[in-house]
User: Fold these one by one.
Assistant:
Number 1:
Amino acid sequence: MQPRGLLLLLALLLLAATAQAGKAKKDKAKKDGSECQDWRWGPCVPNSKDCGLGYREGTCGDESKRLKCKIPCNWKKKFGADCKYKFESWGGCSTQTGVKTRSGILKKALYNAQCEEIVYVSKPCTSKMKSKSKGES
């Protein structure tokens, strides 16, 4: 057999094997999948404490599922881990209250979460003045 014909045969065998593997993967997804389209998901519940790995339960008619999820440990508890916001820059420091504030507009609500459209956060002003270079005296 010529090298060109051998190469062509090898390419066809590889293509057939790839197509068969893709078909098996689709069949598996259909078995695990559900016909239901209107899933209602609950909040992510951490396994321990108030952040880290956990699970989220969902229901659709008589069916129920449990998905793994993760709550970052630096999440804003006030908003919930399923509400994603785009925040502005921090405002100036208020001399009366000693705090600075900023607002955030809802960017995405995951798993049908009930989220506020606009949220406001505040934090204490820093009292330290940061120096720009360490080498100067």
Number 2:
Amino acid sequence: QGNMAFTGKYEFEGDENYDEFVTKIGLPADKIEMGKNCKIVTEVVQNGNDFTWTQHFPGGRTTTNTFTIGNEADMETMGGRKFKATVKMEGGKIVAEFPNYHHTAEISGGKLVEISTSSGVVYKRTSKKIA
């Protein structure tokens, strides 16, 4: 797996259950539209257990979460809400509890696969490595 397994730039390739998931977590309609089939580019810099996780949205908006595995960090949700979370590493997956969903991220077959679960709704987003 190596230490820098996550480092790279990934472009949105596809997702499953987007509408159902964002409705479930209460995202406002304008944000739902904005995120639909959105070519989000996710940039990850991993330095051991330290991560900088940036999402670049079309139109120039970015959100960045900086965290260290095992330590509490200030994070921001898809909808821009600020919260505190302790990010864990479990079997090569990054695991975080967001305020209203459970989130995992892993590198699988060279792709970044992110899964968010809220009350039984599973949202899966796949991004291909571009750098």
Number 3:
Amino acid sequence: LLLGCELTASTKSYTFQVDEEDNSEHILALSVVCLTDGAKDECNVVEVIGRNHENQEIAVPVANLRLSCQPLLNLNNFKLQPPVTFRLAAGSGPVHLTGWHRIMHREDDSFEEDDYLFEEDEEDEEDLPPIKPAKK
């Protein structure tokens, strides 16, 4: 599923959450953060607000965009665990965020996320070309 939202001076935050009763694994990945039409040449800082391993709320800046020098940032599918809030901490935007949301349904309790990640890593390794020695 695709995700998209826009942060502006009037809408400074967007929260993505899932139903807590849902027994599925949810992954949210942030792909691109970019300034859109109407942006001023000012620093626009986008923060991600989530929870750490001790369930404490933390805010981490993920992008600092400026129209004249860096209007777009590729976050290479930066993975997050919902619920998560995106906030325009500085600037007036508009800043557009795009990404995707993956739902992995658990058929039974034997589902292990590590197994899924291991299988994905094996597929990635098959696509890589062999390493060649450096020429001297």
